[in-house]
Amino acid sequence: MHRLMVRGVVRGAAASIDSSSRWVLPGPKLLHTARPCLSDAGSNGDRRTQSPETSASSAAAPSTVDSADKNKSNSERERSQPTTAATASTLSDSFGRFHSYLRISLTERCNLRCKYCMPADGVQLTQKQQLLTSAEVLQLASLFVAEGVRKIRLTGGEPTVRKDLTEIVAQLKATNPLLESVGITTNGLMLTRQLVGLQRAGLDALNVSLDTLRAARYEQITRRKGWDRVMAGIDLAIQLGYRPKVNCVLMKGFNEDEICDFVELTRDRNVDVRFIEYMPFTGNRWDTDKMVPYRAMLETIRARYPAFEALPNGPNDTSKAYRVPGYRGQMGFITSMTEHFCGSCNRLRITADGNLKVCLFGNTEVSLRDALRSPGCSEDDLRCLISAAVKRKKKQHAGMLNLSQMENRPMILIGG
């Protein structure tokens, strides 16, 4: 086997050798810085069916799927793990967690400058030749799918700035029949231009980051204009039959006064609004005074909506689901800081420069890009490299106070 020079942040100054006899070298410090079906594909993942108004114009309209049954089927899929020894050894960690969900960052670039994501003075971007090519993204995705990944989410930076995003989605769907869902996380600015094409390519799921329902405040948070375009993109997604997830990072003194406004967004729109506890990353000036805890959010909502009720969650869900009875949409809470969900984590991440991160908050990374570009590197070599990284995954993250003092990439360089 060839020695693979693995670039990443590892503990200790001396080089160590993993169980596969591959060198693991200390690398440089991280930078501080019911839908009309427009294709012939059947519905799966987070797809929804046609509305009665549009089904008459289509001869092959899929049948209507009840939301409760849909959630149940997703949960059943998550509970069913591949049984082959190779799969279990590659993507299972030492705590018995099987990783069936892969997030791939396609770019470090973004057309917004959100305060909680990017430092005010920006970040130093990786040179283009050091980023994964489209062919490398597809090669790695196929390898992970062969090992048991069933859900892939494409992130950034902002994935819609990639001119070949639609082609990547189409290729993922065409070449990986075992893949159940391909989604994107986007700021929504380009959805009105790109979403129809992405739907034709087979896009199953859509997350939109939106931290305010006020145009002026949007400019404060993102340091850019475009709130009306994002809202138009969300409405288009609903018209096309998606149930978009709207991710909102709450911060004290900034947007926590809009909690109930976001609840009202679910009254007539079939959206899943998810409040995210403010998380520490390099350059975002995190402190506990800015964070709105999950329990405080619940108290605020129930003061106005006493009937606000919890919904069932899947075994690997990161969001605690709720709804107001009678409202079309629902709510969720991602409680990474106050009530972590590390015990059921099934997620892995690949950064735009090809590093595998087994934990969002971990600062140890392994370069799959360098392995891919190493002459003679085989798929078995890659599997051994991935397996070794997954098995080093810790039981849980370090806790919010410790995380705030750890060196980690800015969120935009991780793929959030």
UniProtKB/TrEMBL annotation:
Alphabetized NCBIfam families for the sequence: moaA (TIGR02666)
Pathway listed: Cofactor biosynthesis; molybdopterin biosynthesis
Subunit-structure text: Isoform MOCS1A and isoform MOCS1B probably form a heterooligomer.
Biased composition (Basic and acidic residues): 67-80
Any GO BP annotation: Mo-molybdopterin cofactor biosynthetic process
InterPro entries: Aldolase_TIM (IPR013785), Elp3/MiaA/NifB-like_rSAM (IPR006638), MoaA (IPR013483), MoaA-like (IPR040064), MoaA_NifB_PqqE_Fe-S-bd_CS (IPR000385), MoaA_twitch (IPR010505), MoCo_biosynth_MoaA/MoaC (IPR050105), rSAM (IPR007197)
Single GO MF descriptor: 4 iron, 4 sulfur cluster binding
Source organism superkingdom: Eukaryota
HAMAP family: MoaA_B (MF_01225_B)
EC numbers: 4.1.99.22, 4.6.1.17
Catalytic function, reaction form: GTP + AH2 + S-adenosyl-L-methionine = (8S)-3',8-cyclo-7,8-dihydroguanosine 5'-triphosphate + 5'-deoxyadenosine + L-methionine + A + H(+); (8S)-3',8-cyclo-7,8-dihydroguanosine 5'-triphosphate = cyclic pyranopterin phosphate + diphosphate
Cofactor: [4Fe-4S] cluster
Membership in a protein family: In the C-terminal section; belongs to the MoaC family. In the N-terminal section; belongs to the radical SAM superfamily. MoaA family.
One matching Pfam family: Mob_synth_C
Record-given protein name: Molybdenum cofactor biosynthesis protein 1
Coiled-coil residue spans: none
Enzyme class: lyase
Keywords: 4Fe-4S, GTP-binding, Iron, Iron-sulfur, Lyase, Metal-binding, Molybdenum cofactor biosynthesis, Nucleotide-binding, S-adenosyl-L-methionine
Region of interest (Disordered), ranges: 35-89
Compositional bias segments (type: Low complexity): 51-66
Keyword set includes Endoplasmic reticulum: no
Function: Isoform MOCS1A and isoform MOCS1B probably form a complex that catalyzes the conversion of 5'-GTP to cyclic pyranopterin monophosphate (cPMP). MOCS1A catalyzes the cyclization of GTP to (8S)-3',8-cyclo-7,8-dihydroguanosine 5'-triphosphate and MOCS1B catalyzes the subsequent conversion of (8S)-3',8-cyclo-7,8-dihydroguanosine 5'-triphosphate to cPMP.
